[in-house]
Design goal:
With 172 residues, the chain is an all-alpha fold. It is 74% helix and 0% strand. It is built from 7 helices and no strands. The chain is flat and about 75 Å long.
Length: 172
C-alpha cells in the first residue's frame, strides 16, 4: 500500500478517536464529520468514486450537519455534565477484547482468495434506479431527516410562561 493510504487511515482513526474522547459535543460532531471525510478518502483510494461521493453527500453533507444543528439547537440551556469515570474499568478491557477479536479476524483471513471483479453499475444506472425503483425509500429518508431537524428546532424553542400567553391573548 502506498503511504497516502496510511496517512488517510491514520487521519480517519485519529479523528474517530477524538470524536469519542472530546468533552465538547460540537467538537465531537465536527470530528465525526472529519471521520466521514477520511472514510470517503479511503473509498477514493480504492477507486470507489461513486461510494466516496455518496459518503460525502449523505454523511458529511446531511448526517454530520444534522448532528451539529441538533446539538447547537438543543444544548443551550442545559447545565454542564459532571465528569463520569465509573465505567472506565469495564470499557478499557472490553475495548481490548474487541480489538483482539478484530485483529485475529484480520490475520486469520485468507487474503489470497480474490473474488472475480463484479461489473460495477455506472452512475447513470444508479441514478435511474434511485429515481425509478427506489424513489420511495429515497423520499422517506428525506422526510425523516426533515422531521428530525424540525424536532430539534421545536425542542430548542424556549417555553412560554402562562403569564406571557395570557398577555398575548388580551392584546395588552
Amino acid at each position: 500500500m502506498p503511504a497516502s493510504f496510511y496517512i488517510i487511515a491514520l487521519f480517519t482513526i485519529v479523528s474517530a478517536f477524538c470524536a469519542m474522547s472530546l468533552r465538547n459535543l460540537v467538537h465531537c460532531a465536527l470530528c465525526i464529520a472529519l471521520t466521514f471525510l477520511g472514510v470517503a478518502g479511503l473509498f477514493l483510494h480504492v477507486n470507489a468514486g461513486f461510494i466516496a461521493f455518496a459518503q460525502i453527500l449523505v454523511y458529511v453533507g446531511a448526517v454530520a450537519i444534522l448532528i451539529v444543528f441538533a446539538i447547537l439547537l438543543t444544548r443551550g440551556s442545559e447545565q454542564p455534565e459532571e465528569k463520569r469515570t465509573s465505567g472506565l474499568w469495564l470499557s478499557v478491557p472490553l475495548a481490548g477484547v474487541v480489538a483482539a477479536i478484530l485483529i485475529n479476524a484480520v490475520f486469520s483471513t485468507n487474503l489470497a482468495v480474490v473474488a472475480p471483479p463484479a461489473t460495477a453499475p455506472s452512475v447513470r444506472e444508479l441514478g435511474v434506479a434511485l429515481m425509478t425503483t427506489h424513489v420511495i425509500p429515497l423520499e422517506i429518508i428525506g422526510v425523516l431527516l426533515t422531521v428530525a431537524l424540525l424536532g430539534a428546532v421545536v425542542l430548542a424553542l424556549p417555553e412560554r410562561s402562562a403569564e406571557l400567553e395570557g398577555q398575548g391573548r388580551t392584546g395588552a
